[in-house]
Amino acid sequence: MIRLSSMTDIQRLYARHGGLNYGEGVTQMEHALQSAALAEAHGCVPTLVAASLLHDIGHLFEKEDEVAGFAIDHRHERTGADALAGLFVEAVWRPVALHVAAKRYLCFKEEKYSATLSHASQRSLKLQGGPFSAAEAEAFESQAYWRDAIALRRFDDMGKREEVSHRSFEDFTPLLRGLLIDAARA
Fold first, then answer.
1. Are 23 and 117 in contact (CB under 8 A)?
2. Separation between Cα atoms, residue 88 and residue 177, nearest integer Å
3. CATH code for the domain of 118
4. Which of 71, 76, 86, 91 could form a disulfide with 47 if both were Cys (CB 3.0 to 4.6 A apart)?
5. How many CB atoms lie within 10 A of CB 101?
6. Cβ(32)–Cβ(15) under 8 Å?
7. Is 2 among the domain residues?
8. Are 62 and 56 in contact, with CB atoms under 8 Å apart?
9. How far apart are CA 52 and CA 59, in angstroms?
10. For the chain, what is the largest distance between any 2 Cα atoms, rounded to a whole number of angstroms?
11. Chain centroid, CA 70 distance in Å
12. What is d(CA 109, CA 141) in angstroms, rounded to the nearest whole number?
């Protein structure tokens, strides 16, 4: 299990790997910034803005060719949530852990949702288990932060535009620091 011990670790990780191709015409960093900016523009609480920024951090632990290759499911949502759990309050890392399940849930719950997914998200959906069954959807709804995960998923889907967000990771650093469990890790 990968653990991050400070904000500095997160900043270094994004500085080192944020330029990786996301497989959607944007970099990992730009996707993160677009997702967070969308959450912010929709008036979301700070924890959901932070989750939107950090939701794909698990991809930054993978090799570049595996990020867009879609050969296997690395469970980036679990890797990311586990890495963030020691640093941030649960309302940040739990939606990160559930954002792939949210995609599967929405594919089950909303008839036209899967058609709105990008080509890369449609391919990864197959590796992630496809749409939920009714029982899986019911179990998903019983989890804490499932509604935040749905909102995060929608920002994730929208945060893949080729135009630049004109935001920087540093724009969100004060927000992230305010959500740390231990201020000494800032």
1. no
2. 9
3. 1.10.3210.10
4. 91
5. 22
6. no
7. no
8. no
9. 14
10. 47
11. 17
12. 11
160: pLDDT strictly greater than 80: yes
Pair of tokens at residue 127: 């590796």
Where residue 145 falls (left for φ over 0; alpha for ψ -120 to 50; beta otherwise) is left
Q: Which residue has the tokens 């449609």?
A: 122
Q: 106 in a domain, yes or no?
A: yes
154: containing domain? 7-180
pLDDT grade for 121, boundaries at 50, 70 and 90:
confident
Whole-number Å distance between alpha carbons of 183 and 6: 10
Tally of CB atoms within 10 A around 16: 10
In a domain, 1, yes or no: no
| Lookup: tokens for 41 | 């523009």
pLDDT tens-digit profile of 18-58? Answer: 998 877 788 999 999 999 999 999 999 999 999 999 999 99
136, part of any domain:
yes
Residues 135-148 have a mean pLDDT of: 98
Residue 164 DSSP class? -
Domains in the chain, number: 1
Give the residue carrying structure tokens 């959906």.
Answer: 125
